[in-house]
Amino acid sequence: MLKLTILYDNEAEPGFKGSWGFSALLETEKDSLLFDTGWDGGLLLKHMEKLGISPLSFKKLVLSHQHWDHVGGLPDLLRVNPNLTVYLPESFSKNMKVEIQKRAKLVEISRPCKILPGIYSSGELGTKIKEQSLFLNSGKGIYVLTGCAHPGLSAILDAAKNFGKVRGLIGGLHSSTEFEKLKGLKLVAAGHCSTHKAEIQKRFPSSFLNIGAGLQIELE
Ligand SMILES: [Zn+2]
Ligand SMILES: [Zn+2]
What we know:
By secondary structure, this protein is α/β, with parallel strands linked by helices. The chain has one domain (3-218): Metallo-beta-lactamase, Chain A. The chain contains 6 helices and 13 strands. The strands form 2 sheets. A 7-stranded mixed β-sheet has the order 6-5-4-3-2-1-13. A hairpin with a 4-residue loop joins β9 (134-137) and β10 (142-146). The radius of gyration is 16 Å and the shape is globular. The protein binds zinc ion (ZN) (2 copies). One zinc ion binds next to loops.
């Protein structure tokens, strides 16, 4: 089982609030982890409460990159969960690492590595804006979970191929126009900062899924 809950996104399901940023909870049969925190920690915790998710129910937090809309909710989250291990790209600022270390266990990521059984970090990718994505093995293939996809779709999908055949993609795609890279995927859930959602939906109507805060999906 691989269940994904969108907790924070620019768009939202009825009853939830859209706000610039991204956060998603991943649940397997035995464990769970949080990916990014959105911008407003209060809103993140509110959405969790609405879905019946305790902020103490996960012990691992993966931060994709050091942009405000992905790490802004961190202080609020660390206040309510003092037992977190935070996995972040090595390139995060030294001062931020020092602050996080005062309140959580810190793991710096440079190379690809396992975070949970079936869930892997891409390692730190990109040159200008460095970022890590997650690769999720559903048993049938790999789902790629991105923050903003700043390193580019090619770089991220090439890294994912080392873990198996890529089946789907979820998250922010920024201004990427590498549409041909999405060909053949079973799921293209472009959200958050993706500027070409309409074009992606037009090109891949059967695999496109519009995501928003409050949406829960099972990845098969
Ligand atoms: Zn972003
Ligand atoms: Zn970003």
